[in-house]
């Protein structure tokens, strides 16, 4: 199992000009008017400065998150052919299992194959993408043909809705921070066109990283949508690009959610909010064995409802000439970005 991670920085990250503060969301949800205002301001401020924050007391219980991680591990433990039968098929649907054959990565023995994998710097991960239920023509790819699969399906359906609700609350805080009516974004969040991604990074030979300084568990990228809720286990490896162009570790802080802004929110905010590059590399601790431990994370990608038009928010420009981007339909934007990735 994982070696002991370094002590959690309860104060978040402050390095190379990058701040990722820990923000107590209960002060927004249940605090008096002045703590509500100051919490909303602090959240917006973090999104404007680094595009990242850790949210504590989010309202999602640690037990709920633990159950999701247990179910996720059970899913990825299924035989490869069962997972392949649930394969991701097309960007318009964006649902299903995305393999990077872990056999290929962790059990490759053919030197030519290993060389090819290293040269191409693949993501050493497998994922399951779960979209909103009830979308005509885009069913989720559930393993609900056996009892464990039925339980998994139930847990993930419920978690999708739990996270949808947090997205609504989170955008209410951003609205208050921006001086809008609290429910300003509700008409963009109520449909819940969001995607739940379960991620599994299989254990990896230490030599993969030693032999190739470019090796990654997940390559550097920014997220596409509005906001990402990222639940990570204690293993570590997430890094965020600092203003000084260095990679800074976003060390796991227990019982918090890493929340970052995506490209569509940056665009919507006329670039007053940052969508910052991040990646996943090997954990900070050197294990005694020759393998880095496996890592699990769960990302919930929030988007403005797909039928909404996204154009510069009020207050983010002085005159129309200051609007950096034309208006765009949320769903089309996302589909275009996904089509370019897969
Ligand atoms: O696994 C992680 O910690 C990050 C994953 C991520 O950034 C993504 O899937 O977009
Ligand atoms: Fe990401």
Which features characterize this protein?
alpha+beta; 342 residues; binds fe (ii) ion; binds 2-oxoglutaric acid; 18 strands; 34% helix; four-stranded antiparallel β-sheet; Jelly Rolls
Strand content: 15-25%
> Nearest-angstrom radius of gyration?
20 Å
The assigned structural class equals: alpha+beta
Q: How many beta-strand runs?
A: 18
The CATH fourth-level homologous superfamily: B-lactam Antibiotic, Isopenicillin N Synthase, Chain
Query: Helix tally?
Result: 11
Q: What ligand species are in this complex?
A: 2-oxoglutaric acid, fe (ii) ion
Could you characterize what this model shows?
This is Fe2OG dioxygenase domain-containing protein. The chain has 342 residues and is of the alpha+beta class. It has one domain: Jelly Rolls, CATH 2.60.120. It is built from eleven helices and 18 strands. It has an eight-stranded mixed β-sheet with strand order 3-4-13-10-16-7-6-5. A hairpin with a 2-residue loop joins β1 and β2. α2 crosses α7 and α3 crosses α7. The longest helix has 31 residues. The radius of gyration is 20 Å and the shape is globular. Fe (ii) ion binds next to loops.
């Amino acid at each position: 199992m994982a070696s002991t991670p370094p002590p959690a920085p309860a104060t978040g990250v402050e390095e190379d000009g990058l701040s990722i503060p820990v923000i107590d969301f209960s002060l927004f949800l249940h605090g008096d008017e002045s703590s509500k205002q100051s919490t909303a301001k602090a959240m917006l401020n973090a999104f404007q400065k680094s595009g990242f924050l850790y949210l504590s007391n989010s309202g999602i219980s640690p037990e709920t998150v633990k159950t999701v991680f247990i179910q996720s591990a059970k899913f990825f433990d299924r035989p490869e052919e069962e997972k392949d039968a649930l394969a991701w098929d097309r960007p318009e649907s964006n649902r299903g299992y995305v393999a990077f054959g872990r056999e290929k990565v962790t059990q490759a023995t053919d030197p030519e194959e290993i060389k090819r994998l290293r040269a191409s710097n693949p993501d050493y991960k497998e994922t399951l993408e779960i979209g909103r239920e009830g979308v005509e023509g885009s069913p989720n790819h559930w393993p609900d043909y056996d009892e464990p699969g039925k339980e998994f399906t139930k847990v993930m359906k419920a978690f999708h809705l739990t996270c949808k609700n947090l997205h609504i609350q989170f955008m209410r805080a951003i609205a208050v921070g921006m001086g809008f009516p609290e429910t300003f974004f509700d008409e963009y969040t109520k449909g819940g066109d969001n995607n739940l991604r379960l991620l599994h990074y299989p254990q990896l030979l230490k030599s993969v990283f030693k032999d190739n300084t470019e090796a990654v568990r997940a390559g550097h990228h920014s997220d596409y949508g509005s906001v990402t809720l990222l639940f990570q286990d204690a293993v570590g490896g997430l890094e965020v690009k600092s203003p000084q162009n260095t990679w800074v570790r976003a060390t796991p802080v227990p019982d918090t959610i890493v929340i970052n802004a995506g490209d569509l929110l940056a665009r919507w905010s006329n670039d007053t909010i940052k969508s910052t590059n991040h990646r996943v590399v090997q954990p900070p601790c050197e294990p005694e064995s020759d393998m880095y431990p496996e890592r699990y994370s769960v990302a919930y990608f929030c988007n403005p409802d797909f039928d909404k038009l996204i154009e510069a928010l009020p207050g983010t420009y002085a005159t129309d000439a200051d609007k950096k981007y034309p208006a765009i339909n949320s769903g089309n934007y996302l589909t275009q970005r996904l089509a370019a990735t897969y």
